[in-house]
Design a protein that fits this description.
It is a single chain. This protein is of the alpha/beta class. It has two domains: 169 residues, D-Maltodextrin-Binding Protein, domain 2, CATH 3.40.190; 151 residues, D-Maltodextrin-Binding Protein, domain 2 (3-Layer(aba) Sandwich). Helix content is 42%, strand content 18%. Strands 1, 2, 3, 4, 5, 6, 7, 8, 9, 10 and 11 form an eleven-stranded mixed β-sheet that branches. The longest helix is centred in the first third of the chain and has 26 residues.
Amino acid sequence: MKKILLAALSLLAAFAFTACNEQKQEQAPKTVTVMIYSEYIDPAMLDDFEKKTGYKLQLELYEAQEEMIGKLQAAGTSQYDVVIASDVVIQQMVHLGLIAPIDTAKVPNRVNIAPQFMGQAYDPTNTYTIPYLWGTTGILFHGAKVNPDSVSYSMLFDATKTKGNFSLLEESRSMLSMALQALGFDANSVKQEEINKAVELILKAKKDKNFLGFDGSVGGKDKVLSKMDWAAIVFNGEAQAAIDEDSTLQFVIPMEGSFMWVDAMTLSSKAPNVEGAYAFMNYILDAKIGAQLAKYINYATPNKASLEVIDDEFKNNRVINPNEQEIKRMVFLADPGDAAKLFDEAWTIVKTR
């Protein structure tokens, strides 16, 4: 009888222990995993997001679009809930099955998106993307103050005009498109002969004794700040962060042109926490959160509600919000379609020669 009683008590204890563990697991915050550029969110938002939604935010960092796509293909999309990606690779990600359609009813703050960021070529039906931030790509450099509308790509691509060490951007489509513009071609050209000339221009720059290599935007910014580099191609947000530390630095959109881009939140095709993904998207589109994000990261916001609470100094900052003249010199990069292989082949030549 004692053995039966002891067995029964042991069984009850086991049930109680299991129930307690299950209760603790239910109380523990479920994780939302976001794949994102490094230094691309206010760290204070991690705790704030958990406090407001109950979800713990986990970040998986990357530096370039090629790296991000490679990780998704190698590790599988089931490891991530939200992937923040630049507009230029959205259609590629759709074709590869890396992202899924978004249930917009689950993101009520979507009404805050400014009209100009809807129906763009990278997602004409607004099926796969929610804009995160937008920005530009240009040149950050040391030197005497110059007219920002008079700076040419020749400062990097012409060895007789380089004034010190420089880095180019470690993103294939971006770098090749800038080389196309430097030569006077359309940034979205898919003509083989023009892409070949862009390759030749970059290879020529690689032979310059001042060329230090290809870097992500953060790496390029850090090299300029440390004075390892005289100049680097970076995104405007990194440029502003550098200028905040060293006011003598300058950032320009070259006279030949550049491009604007939108980084968008997308839903991983096999997201393990879809509801958490929607909670993150909705959180970012809150007016005050969008303003906080833009000011911390130094990029322009696509959130019209956030613009109502951001100060005029930020809105009038030419590095973050380019003026009309600069905008006229810039384009959005379009999906090259079948011509994507031309850019892939061109970049392979650039990196291996």
